[in-house]
Each structure stands twice: as C-alpha cells, then as structure tokens.
Amino acid sequence: MDADLSGPRLRRCVCPGSYDPVTLGHLDIVARAGELFDEVVVAVLYNPDKSGTFSADERVELLRASLGDRPGVRVEQFAARLLVDVCDELGAGHVVKGLRSGADLEYERPMALMNRHLTGLETIFVVADPQWQHVSSTLVRQVSAYGGDVSGLVPEVVLEALAKRRG
Ligand code: PNS
Question: What string of DSSP letters covers 29-75?
Fold first, then answer.
C-alpha cells in the first residue's frame, strides 16, 4: 500500500554545511529537501578564523552556479553562528541533513540532540543515495589535490574550480 503523503507540507528548512566544496551528494539532499519543504535555505556555515580550501564567498558562488535557478531554493552564508540562531533568524523549524553511514549518524546525533535541547530545532535525516556513499568534500579535496579524477562526483563548476586551484 502506498504511504499517504498528502498531509500538510512543512514550510521552510535549512540544509546546513561547510560545502567546501559542494558535491553531487549534497545536491541530491537539497533536491530531496525541496520535495518535502516549500522553501530550502542552503546555509554555508563557516568559521572566519579558519581558512578552508574555498572561501565562504567561493563556496556560495559554486553552490549557486550548481543549483541554478530553482524556485524555493536559496543559498546564504553565516560566519561564526550557531545553527539554532541561523534557523531562528530564517524562520526555519527544521534542518535536513544527509546520512551516508553509521559514522555520519554518530557525528550528527549529538548535534541534532544539542540543537533540539537549545531551541527545539528538529533535524530530519535523509538517507543518502548509495551512489554518493563514498563522496565527501574532504575526500574530493584530497583526491583532486593529488591529481585524481573527481568527475562525476562534483558539479562541473566545482571540477573547474578544483583544477584552477591545482594550477
Ligand atoms: O558540512 P559539515 O561539516 O558536516 O557541517 C557541519 C555544520 C557546519 C552544519 C555544523 O558544524 C554546525 O551546525 N555548525 C554551526 C555551529 C553550531 O551550531 N554548533 C553547535 C552544533 S550542536
């Protein structure tokens, strides 16, 4: 029997992350969040005291170029902020995150519990498609830095940005 999915839709969610850089796995989670919520805010959260591979502006630019013009989806950046405060500011009651593995769950669970403790913010976990199970920004950066081929794992604009970075 098909599940009844006709109930009231949830309004706005946040897909938070470092996105250094965005991968096709991230894009899949954002697209699926868009099926559940009317509005998705992709929030690039970063620590201004730590330099990533890409600056926050570059991460946002790569996300926007990768997502294109999708109704109801927007990208914003937040420096040194608690996720609960970002969600309050955005009027979002839910966070959506992808889970690739048990290790992801162990990493995410305390944060989800802390966020619920702080303000009641709920986290909804979406199980990552198996084709993206091995794909993380960290591995993409590492493989690319040593000249490995990450095509098919990241959007074209990210491939180009990584190639430029390698020189
Ligand atoms: O892409 P990542 O590294 O998995 O993203 C982790 C992120 C940025 C979502 C997480 O570290 C976060 O929420 N940082 C904001 C600061 C914060 O709220 N910390 C307390 C979480 S309980």
Answer: HHHHHHHHEEEEEEEEEE-TTS--SS-HHHHHHHHHHHH-S-TTEEE
Give tens-digit pLDDT for 33-70.
999 999 999 999 999 888 889 999 999 999 999 999 99
**Amino acid, res. 151:** S
**Centroid of ligand 1 to alpha carbon of 83 (angstroms):** 7
Give dist(CA 125, CA 109) in Å, integer: 10
* Residues contacting 148, CB < 8 A, separation 6+: none
pTM of the complete model:
0.94
| pLDDT for position 5 | 60
The H-or-E segment that residue 144 falls in is helix 137-145
Ordered by where they begin, the domains of the chain are 12-166 (3.40.50.620)
Using CA positions, which residue lies closest to atom 7 of ligand 1?
Answer: 17
* Residues catalogued as catalytic: 26, 50, 100, 137
For ligand 1, residues with CB inside 6 Å are: 16-18, 45, 82-83, 111, 114-115
